[in-house]
Amino acid sequence: MDDKQRSVLIIDDEISLIKLIELKLKKAGFITLTAQDSESAMEILAGHHIDLIICDIQMPGMSGFEFREKILNEPSTRDIPFIFLTASSESVDQIKGFRLRVDDYITKPFDPTILIARARSVIERHDAFSEKSSFDQLTGLLNRQALQQRVEKELSRIGRYGGGVSVVFIDVDSFKQVNDAHGHSTGDLVLIQLGQLFQQKLRGIDFAGRYGGEEFVLCLVNTGKEGALELTKRLLSLFSGIPISDKKLTCTFSAGIASAPEDGTDFSVLCRKADEAMYISKKEGKNRVTLWK
After folding, report:
1. What is the pLDDT of residue 3?
2. pLDDT in tens, 8-51
3. What secondary structure letter does DSSP report for 6?
4. What's the pTM value of the predicted model, to 2 decimals?
5. Residues 6 or more apart from 122 whose CB is under 8 A from it?
6. What is the dihedral of CA 104, 107, 111, 116, to 10 degrees?
7. Which residues contact 185 (CB under 8 A, 6 or more apart)?
8. Range of 21's domain?
């Protein structure tokens, strides 16, 4: 595991057990947060970044199974690694837990050293899988699935706390002609250089993904339409000035912008509207940015 301190949320109604797990995890270098019921746990998840959840099955009110189902339905929490703790050794409980896509299942009583080892293993597996499966191999940007998940998390966040995001849909102009005239290796270079431009010029809180082919989507956090328009125009100006390979070729793109919450609070709706605005840019001569209205 890397040097970054990882945060673990421990959920159990048995205070002595929470304190024991918390003590052992802190000694192992983890940051810990605790809750004695699912309602308190949801409040913590809404306000903190959590790298792992360790949850008892038998709890007052909402059971661990019900809590797991609840967070699976939330885009902002469904991908957090999850370990069940239980006093039951019944196989039916374990089967139910794994059907809910939990990462591990630990039966009480347990050796705290084993718990720490399993916690580390779950986080490491999650990190390795996320890194491998989340990025487009050519450009290094988020792939479409990972992009959607990240945007949905932002939309969930603004639904709770307010604020907004802008989604920019970008399509490289005349890309087929580039491939036909200069070869697919040159076309790939165009996409790589555009991806590098996004990585260099976007803020740390913003992110970009390859939507498919020569299409890209930017998510600009806490940015309204006018701010998104200004930034996208600046990116277009920079991109159109980049020489591609040694062929003295330059490219442009067309873009459309939609913003949440005013244009919608759903990923597919925002992408559709930004895409529609992008097609207006194409029809009006390409090499421009259009706001959805």
Report:
1. 45
2. 999 999 999 999 999 999 999 999 999 999 899 999 998 888 99
3. P
4. 0.63
5. 52, 81, 83, 103, 104
6. 20
7. none
8. 7-133
Residue 230 belongs to some domain of the structure: yes
- Asked if residues 6 and 51 have their Cβ atoms less than 8 Å apart, the reply is yes
Secondary structure class of 33 (helix, strand, coil):
strand
Contacts of 126-135 spanning 24+ positions with Cβ under 8 A: 126/81, 127/1, 127/2, 130/79
Mean pLDDT rounded to a whole number for the chain: 91
Q: Identify whether 90 is a catalytic site residue.
A: no
Question: Of the candidates 70, 98, 133, which is a domain's last residue?
Answer: 133
Residues 210 and 124 in one domain: no
Whole-angstrom Cα distance, residue 107 to residue 103? 14
Q: Which of 124, 214, 230, 262 is catalytic?
A: 214
Residues in the chain: 293
Residue with tokens 């949905």: 152
The closest alpha carbon to 96, from 111, 86, 110, 81, belongs to 86
Predicted pLDDT of residue 254: 98
Burial code of 30-44, b = ≥16 C-beta within 10 A, e = fewer? bebbbbbebeebbeb
Q: Is residue 138 part of a domain?
A: no
Whether pLDDT at 206 is above 50: yes
Give the whole-angstrom CA distance, residue 163 versus residue 128: 32
